[in-house]
Design a protein that fits this description.
It is a single chain. Helix 3 runs antiparallel to helix 5. It is built from ten helices and eleven strands. The chain starts with a strand and ends in an 11-residue tail after the last helix. Helices cover 46% and strands 17% of the residues. The chain is an alpha+beta fold.
Length: 265
């Protein structure tokens, strides 16, 4: 406005604009912050835990862990550990052939220990499953397969025991005997691996790396030998066979097919 030849400009409008701008910026900040917090709240939390066999307490490998809401899947490792994305109050399903399928409602995010129990049924065996079995489960399956593969039966009419061709040649019996052989071989493998170890060999010989793998493949002892051999017998066996290994020609060593082994048996 004009007064005595002077022009006085009102400061109301600039102040209003500044306040309005502040309000808008504050609203944008709150909105963006709220959206970020909402996104964080919606994000899955990673849950860690272990899957163990109830009777023995041994870890179970290759157990499938599934989030029933999202469909996300995970698998337990050699020590039974698993990690999976899950929100509070969602359900996880634990499944492995030969064991009862179990579920867990996630309430807390501390480390979980899930115990699985055998379902009492024989399972289809493949290489992955047989290596994943605990020792107690392996012993149970060996006993079951042996019983299912029996080819004799007791006759109530003639007395005594007689051959049962129908059971011997039946499909179930054949599969049971095949399963029995696989399971028994795995049990024997574990008995050998428990004593014929890299550490035991490296304590006596300078073998390492590929040379060690070739030696262990070539001179792997039998379970029959280890069943009666004490530590001094095994030490002498390693020394004698190492002497033989050193005398092998490059061509003879090339013929040895060393299997792939786990780095942390």
């Amino acid at each position: 406005m004009q007064h005595h030849g002077l022009i006085i400009r009102s400061r109301t409008k600039p102040l209003f604009r500044i306040k309005l701008l502040f309000v808008v910026l504050h609203a944008i900040f709150m909105l963006s912050t709220g959206t970020s917090l909402a996104r964080i709240a919606q994000q899955d939390t990673v849950l860690a835990g272990y899957v163990l066999e109830l009777d023995s307490g041994e870890p179970l490998q290759y157990v499938e862990v599934k989030n029933l809401k999202t469909g996300v899947r995970a698998e337990s490792s050699k020590d039974g550990k698993f990690t999976i994305a899950v929100n509070k109050n969602e359900r996880l399903q634990f499944e492995y052939p030969g064991y009862r399928t179990d579920t867990l409602v996630v309430i807390e995010f501390d480390v979980k220990r899930v115990y699985m129990t055998p379902d009492g049924s024989a399972i289809q065996i493949d290489e992955v499953q047989i290596h994943a079995m605990t020792d107690s489960r392996l012993a149970t399956e060996i006993k079951r397969a042996k019983e299912e593969g029996q080819f004799t039966e007791v006759s109530q009419h003639r007395g005594g025991v007689r051959i049962s061709p129908s059971r011997w040649f039946g499909k179930d019996a054949r599969q049971a005997r095949q399963r029995y052989e696989l399971l028994l071989a795995e049990q024997e493998r574990r008995k050998i691996d428990a004593r014929f170890t890299r550490e035991a060999i490296m304590a006596i010989t300078p073998l390492t790396g590929n040379e060690l793998e070739l030696y262990m493949t070539k001179y792997r002892p039998t379970v029959e030998f280890l069943s009666t051999a004490d530590e001094s017998d095994l030490r002498l066996y390693i020394m004698d066979t190492y002497t033989q290994f050193k005398e092998l020609t490059p061509e003879q060593r090339a013929e040895i097919k060393a299997p792939k082994r786990d780095e942390n048996p």
